[in-house]
Design a protein that fits this description.
- The protein has ten helices and eight strands.
- It is globular.
- The protein has a single domain, classed as Phosphopantoate/pantothenate synthetase (Rossmann fold, 3-Layer(aba) Sandwich).
- The strands form two sheets. It has a six-stranded parallel beta sheet, sandwiched between helices. A two-stranded antiparallel ribbon has the order 4-5.
- The structure holds ligand PTJ.
- Ligand PTJ binds next to helix 2 and helix 4.
């Protein structure tokens, strides 16, 4: 790999690219993961590569919902694990909420590698492993219909960063509160989820961890107020406004 100078104006972004390319070569990621990452980069660029006030609001609501949940679960795919494994494990410990591997392009080899990566990052228990039991999610076919009986299947609140639209929709139809992190405010996942954090997982998950520390001191009543006050469509519109503001600045 090319040595990237820390003085390069796009240093952080190039480091993430390199991490993704390496994980692809190691077989953790599907080839399309790199395309999905590129789309994310483009949206991040027009969002100014920073967390917007509306994303902070969604993060606060998402964490409140997870703290209020009876059975919160964190569903993890390849991109999220490669970019944020250690922070995901930390969030899972603090809420607490189990981590479940759910892959769109599921192969036994990738599942094994994902488990290895999560365990190396500190996870003690991972659901959705190679030989684990699963129940199908109605309306979905193939590997992406898998839900672990102690994980997504019985969850009332599911955090699913970078989810595919069908799956987000199917989970919402099952009555689950779906929290997603997606840089594209127009994606079907962003539009159908209950709480959409329009931000990069590499910034959003550490911020969620910081919010847990603050919100753990809140009463159930205060957390419920935060969740009830939140309007997802309105929040997504604010993200779209940030994007149009970016273009207007460049005029
Ligand atoms: O690991 P697997 O097999 O489960 O596959 C995962 C991918 C991501 C390949 C699969 O779910 C997929 O094809 O996703 P999509 O439909 O391309 O959607 C990816 C979404 O995530 C797009 O809306 C991107 O803008 C967004 N995205 C990409 N990178 C990031 C991101 N959102 C937040 N943070 C990112 N770093």
């Amino acid at each position: 790999m090319l040595k990237i100078s820390s003085k390069h104006p796009r240093y952080k972004s190039l480091l993430l690219r390199e991490k993704m390319a390496k994980a692809y070569q190691e077989g953790i990621l599907a080839d399309t993961a790199l395309i999905a990452h590129g789309r994310g980069e483009a949206f991040d660029y027009i969002l100014g590569e920073k967390t917007s006030p509306s994303a902070i609001e969604a993060i606060r609501c998402g964490v409140s919902a997870m703290l209020l949940a009876e059975n919160p679960v964190i569903s993890v795919n390849g991109n999220t694990a490669v970019l944020s494994a250690e922070h995901l494990v930390e969030l899972s410990r603090l809420i607490p909420a189990p981590i479940e591997i759910n892959l769109f392009y599921r192969t036994p080899q990738r599942v094994e590698k994902m488990e290895e990566l999560l365990k190396k990052s500190g996870a003690t228990k991972v659901l959705g492993r190679k030989n684990d039991d699963y129940l199908p999610i109605p309306g979905l076919e193939g590997p992406r219909s898998r839900a672990h009986p102690d994980g997504v299947h019985q969850a009332d609140v599911v955090l699913v960063p970078l989810e595919d639209g069908d799956r987000a929709q199917a989970l919402v139809s099952l009555g689950k509160k779906v929290i997603t992190i997606d840089l594209n405010p127009l994606s079907r996942t962003a539009q159908t989820s209950s709480i959409t954090i329009v931000d990069n997982v590499v910034r959003a998950i550490p911020l969620m961890i910081q919010e847990v520390a603050k919100l753990k001191k809140y009463s159930k009543k205060q957390l419920t107020r935060i969740v009830n006050k939140f309007d997802n469509s309105e929040n997504i519109s604010k993200s779209l406004n940030s994007i149009s503001h970016h273009f207007k600045q460049d005029e």
